[in-house]
Structure formats: C-alpha cells, structure tokens
Specification:
Length: 384
C-alpha cells in the first residue's frame, strides 16, 4: 500500500477564552495557519488537492464550511476545495486520517489537514444548548430509538468524568496533583522554547500560549465543583476552553519527489473505535489496545504519547489500564494547561507530538483522545 507522509505541522498559539484571540474570526484564525503552511513549503498553492479541517459547533463565524472559507480568507487560489469534519473532540485528528487515506488510496497527493475552534465566540455545545446548562444537553433526547436503547441515562462530560474517577478510584486530590504537573510541564516547555518551531505567532496579538498558569494545590483545593453531583470535577482538573488553529501537511511519495520535499514522519497506523456513550470518555483505552494489535506494536515500542486531557480522570484511567509511563505521556503538558480547542485539538497534538519526537530522537509516537458519543481516534506516527 502507498504511504502517507507528514512534511510539516504547525499551530497558532492558544488564546484563553476571552483572551488575546477572542475577537478573531474563525476563518481568519484558520487562514493564519493555512498561510503559514503554504508559505513555508515548496508546493504551489494551486497544487493542493484538498483542505480538510475539523471543527465542532459549526455555527455563527464557524459556519459555512470553515475549511473552505479559511483557505479563501488566506488569499489562496480559488481552485482548491475544502471540507469540514465533525468527530467531536477528535475532528482534526480525523481530518488527518482522511487526508492520509486520500493519499494512500492514490486519489490525492497533497492534502492540508487541520482544524480551528474559536470558543470565545462559539462556546462548547452552542449548537444544541438552547439556553440550557453547559454540558448537560443531550441533542438526541427526543429520539425514540435512543430512548428505547439508553432511556434517560445522563449523557454529559461531567457525569462521565466523575464516573471514571469513581470507577478507577481516582481522588480529587490525585487529579489536582496531575493537573498541577500538567501546568508545570507546559510552563517549563515554554520557558525552554520547546514550542518555538511549531507555534506561528499571531502578529500584534499573541506570540505563545496564554492558558498555562502558575498555581498550587492549595488554590486548586478551594475551587468549587462544577455541580454538587460531581464533587471531584472542578475547573482545575478540566481542560480549558480556548481559541486556536492547527495544520498538518500530508503528502504522497509522488509529491515528495515532485516538489523535492523531505518527509518528517510517516503515518504508521490510524484507526477509530467506539465505546459506551454513557461512559462517554473511556474509548481511548480499548482504542489504544485495538490500534496496537492492528499495527503490530507494543506500548513499549512507543516513545511518546499525546492523549488529550479533557479531564484528569480520563488520562489517569488510561495510564492505569495501559501501564504506560506518565513520564512519557504529555511531556510538555496537556489540555488542562494548554487548552482544548475542540475541533483543532487533534492537529494541535499532532504538531506537538511530531516536534517532540524530533527534539528527543524518538521513533514512534501515539496520539489518542476521547470524543463525544464514546469514540476515540488513534494515530501512530514514525519519525523519519
């Protein structure tokens, strides 16, 4: 089978909600990473076959096929199409999969995959909230088929995060220690310039991520839970909402030769698996096992892991189940510190994973994340 190669990966800095990027239109933020990607790679813009972007809650400034409008807002040629993907939090990781699949099928040679999310202007679940409390609306509650199968079982992220903490016996204090370490790692990574190659500053607005915080366990202990029903789940152990965009350039071997490109990584494996939607956030566990079995690798073969820190309990349960070392997981901090820009997170994590493999000399990196509906993508890349 033909191979799919990554020749570049980059991202915008992550702006905190109502922060430096808050009033930036989604198309312009997407255009920012598109323009940077096209500008620093020797492929004529008109030769791109497609733009595949992830985005969640595509309403307001994120509506109207944000992949296509971001490309046009970047001043790029009219002939290049775009399509927008929604696999919830894994949307831009799925965009990378679609790009790789197109290249491996031989139908396309140059695909720009990525994602954008402006959570300052379009908060999480805006398309379905209709004035109801954040995270508690089930968009399919009126479905007769859903009711027959699942009844009135709660489907929301906070319930799932608490249920995971209870099932795996993860205390609030343990989650707060995990979260504190996420912030410590992120701040250290920034101070050492580890993100310098992957982040494309937004001139006049933001040069580097502004979400990580100097905090303490004492401060975290004072935070109220998101709801009395979920006593261990606070803002401190949850990913932060933010604004960001990211992009990954996926090409064929034919494109490597045609444009004289040097591949930085090869897509070694990609898969997606689902779990119980009521548990909601547990799918990375079976999805990781499934992926490793399919690609013939063991966890010992994986040098680095990026798993999205939607909540501390999600990653901590994954670590308990897999036995993988926390020291090699989210080594530069995770979404608790660096933010979770929903539809952009997959490409954002891929950019960080690629650059960290290059910095440390690792060979294989694995990326996974929990996704709405009880799903999880897994991507394994091999640094070249």
């Amino acid at each position: 089978m033909a191979e799919a190669y990554i020749v570049d990966a980059l991202r915008s800095p992550t702006g905190k909600r109502r922060g430096s990027l808050a009033d930036m239109h989604g198309a312009d933020l997407g255009a920012h990473v598109i323009g940077a990607m096209v500008g620093r790679n020797a492929i004529p813009a008109e030769d791109y076959d497609d733009v595949v972007f992830g985005c969640v809650d595509t309403i307001g400034p994120l509506a109207g096929n944000i992949a296509r409008t971001s490309w046009l807002a970047a001043g790029m040629p009219l002939n290049v199409p775009g399509t927008t993907v929604d696999r919830q939090c894994g949307s831009s990781q799925q965009a990378i999969h679609f790009a790789a699949q197109a290249v491996m099928s031989g139908t396309q040679d140059v695909v720009l995959a990525g994602g954008v999310q402006t959570m300052s202007s379009v908060p999480i679940s805006s398309a379905m909230l209709a004035g109801q409390p954040l995270g508690f609306t089930t968009p399919f509650a009126e479905s007769a088929g859903w009711q027959r199968r699942f009844g009135d079982a709660p489907v929301n992220q906070f319930y799932a995060a608490q249920r995971i903490a209870d099932h795996w016996e993860i205390s609030r204090e343990a989650m707060e220690s995990f979260a504190l370490e996420s912030h410590r790692r992120a701040l250290q990574a920034m101070s050492e310039g580890r993100f310098a190659r992957e982040v494309v500053p937004v001139e006049g607005r933001l040069a580097m991520d502004e979400t990580a915080r100097e905090t303490t366990l004492e401060k975290m202990a004072t935070l109220a839970s998101v709801d009395p029903a979920y006593p261990a789940i606070t803002a401190g152990v949850s990913s932060s909402t933010c604004d960001a965009a990211a992009a990954v350039l996926v090409v064929s071997e034919r494109a490597l030769k045609r444009y004289g490109l040097t591949p930085r990584a090869r897509i070694h494996h990609m898969s997606v698996l689902a779990d119980d939607p009521i548990w909601h956030l547990t799918a990375p566990i079976p999805a990781t096992r499934h992926a490793l079995k399919r690609c013939g690798l063991r966890l010992d073969d994986i040098d680095l892991v990026e798993i999205n820190e939607a909540f501390a309990s999600v990653v901590m349960a994954w670590l308990k189940e897999t036995g993988y070392a926390h020291e090699r997981t989210n080594v530069n901090g995770g979404a608790i510190a660096l933010g979770h820009p929903l539809g952009a997170s997959g490409a954002k994590l891929m950019s960080t994973l690629l650059h960290e493999l290059e910095r440390t000399g690792g060979r294989f990196g694995l990326q996974t994340m929990c996704e709405g509906g009880g799903q999880a993508n897994v991507t394994v890349i091999e640094r070249l």
